[in-house]
Amino acid sequence: MIAINKIKPLSDYLLIEPTEGETKLPSGIVIPDTAKEKPQEGKVIAHGPGKRDDSGNVVPMGVRVGDIVMYKKWGGTEVKVEGKDFLLVKEEDLLAIIEG
């Protein structure tokens, strides 16, 4: 089994741990897993060095490990590590950083 600290994304990829959506409505109704929408927010667990520009220079990432980000609904590749679901997402698929 691969340990999460052994994963180092390449180029401009980020490893994101999606946040769990609400499972209960304010009225008390419980939402089943099959009816939940895919989350679009998550925490950056790791990221690559950045994308190379036309001159071959590395452009550093605009996010840091620990940032909470919003990403495109259908962006990224789902991976399972240590029994948890994660996403590998390109930096261009990020929509925003959520400031706490």
Task: Describe this structure as you would to a colleague.
By secondary structure, the protein is mainly β. The protein has a domain of 60 residues: 10 Kd Chaperonin, Protein Cpn10, Chain O (Roll), CATH 2.30.33.40. It has no helices and eight strands. The strands form two sheets. A six-stranded antiparallel beta sheet has the order 6-7-1-2-5-8, with no helix packed on it. It has a two-stranded antiparallel ribbon with strand order 3-4. It is globular. The mean pLDDT is 86.
Describe the secondary-structure layout.
Layout lengths: L12 E6 L22 E7 L3 E2 L5 E2 L8 E4 L5 E5 L2 E7 L3 E5 L2
Antiparallel strand pairs: 1-2, 1-7, 2-5, 3-4, 5-8, 6-7
CATH topology of the domain at 41-100: 10 Kd Chaperonin, Protein Cpn10, Chain O
Count of individual beta strands:
8
CATH homologous superfamily descriptor of the domain at 41-100? GroES chaperonin
Put simply, the count of helices is 0
**Helical content class:** under 10%
State the shape: globular
Order of helices and strands: EEEEEEEE
Largest sheet, if any?
6 strands, antiparallel
Determine the mean pLDDT.
86
End-to-end distance: 33 Å
CATH architecture descriptor name of the domain at 41-100: Roll
